[in-house]
Amino acid sequence: WYSTAIATFTQITDGDFTGLTVRGKMEFLDGFAFILDANNRIYNSDINSIANWSASNYITKSIKQDIARGLARFNTQIIAFNETSFEVFRNAGNASGSPLESVQNLTGNIGCYNPNSSLDYRHYYTVLGGWLYWPSTNPGGMHAFNGQTVEKVSTPAIDKILNERQHYHVGNIIIGGQAAIAIALDTAAATTQRWLMFFPEWKEWFEWNSTVISPITSQRRGYEVLGVGANQHKLYVISSSGVTDNWQDDGTNYTWTHQFKLPSNGNPRTVMSWFGVKGDTARSASSLNVSFSDDDWQTFSTARTIDMTATLKRITRCGAYHDRGVRLTHTANLDIRLESVVAKVK
């Protein structure tokens, strides 16, 4: 840390700190620095000091013992995450030892994904709109905590992605004035970035891929994002004004993809006379591409286009099938909003 001016880096050399096997991030509350060690002890620095630590200044996470993951700060609470649980602490103003005490009724049997691996992990939680969000274990997925209650915000499909693929950073990002939770699925060094985004106001999940920007944002401004590859030293600004939105990623049109399976009516063979969508009518030329998969997502038909400037947005003669998946894609510098999919089948 910088002890006086932003010029000289100062290292913590106190043996009561350097002897700890640290887990997760250091957090700060009411003039104290807090860190979790591998023995589930939350150690704190001396008041108003990062340099000085005492061997007796700790409190142990004791309601449930399992593998230590790390600390989080949420408002006036310090949260100790383990593999299968978390415990909440508050500043009780104790005269000696740790200033913290456990708030036992806020303990939960939900853990945190391991941020202590050697896989280039950055932040493992973020705070947005009065909620703390983190990738969870026991059960796996994404959970949110508002200081009193826990809510699961991920879907089974998102749970599967998070459980099967390593993730490296949890933050928040602002797209078109809407704030979202961003979970990076690639290391910061990857030249193609892939991340999941959850919009709390919409309660919807999206996936983003970019060769220009990563989901790592400025802590103070969620619309300033770090560049990718050779441009990691650059900050890219995502327009938050409806007037200047051009729906482009460094000059390249955004591409979005949505896939889903059609419900089955139980018939062995179904004929689709037409397929269409309900949504906003585009103000200039814009095409929605439609492909079908009748072999369980292995192959797709040649894409056909729906004219989004038309009043009736549909295609006809869509063939017969036993079981069908649908892929919709759109590439343009225009926004597109769909309300529903409609089709005539028999």
Architecture blueprint of SSEs:
Layout: H1 15-18, E1 22-29, E2 32-37, E3 41-45, E4 53-60, E5 68-74, E6 77-82, E7 86-91, E8 100-102, E9 111-112, E10 126-128, E11 131-137, E12 141-145, E13 150-152, H2 156-164, E14 169-175, E15 178-184, E16 193-199, E17 204-210, E18 213-217, E19 224-227, E20 235-237, E21 248-249, E22 252-261, E23 270-279, E24 287-293, E25 304-307, E26 314-316, E27 320-321, E28 325-332, E29 338-345
Antiparallel strand pairs: 1-2, 2-3, 3-4, 5-6, 6-7, 7-8, 9-11, 10-11, 11-12, 12-13, 14-15, 15-16, 16-17, 18-19, 19-20, 21-22, 22-28, 23-26, 23-27, 23-29, 24-25, 24-28
List the quaternary state of the chains: single chain
Report mean pLDDT, rounded to a whole number.
91
Q: Major sheet: size, sense and barrel closure?
A: 5 strands, antiparallel
Assign a percent range to the helix content: under 10%
- The total count of strands amounts to 29
Residue share in β-strands: over 45%
Overall structural class, as computed from helix and strand content, comes to mainly beta
Unreliable spans are none
Overall, the morphology is: elongated
- Straight-line distance between termini: 69 Å
Count of runs of 4 or more consecutive helical residues: 2
> Compute the gyration radius: what is it?
25 Å
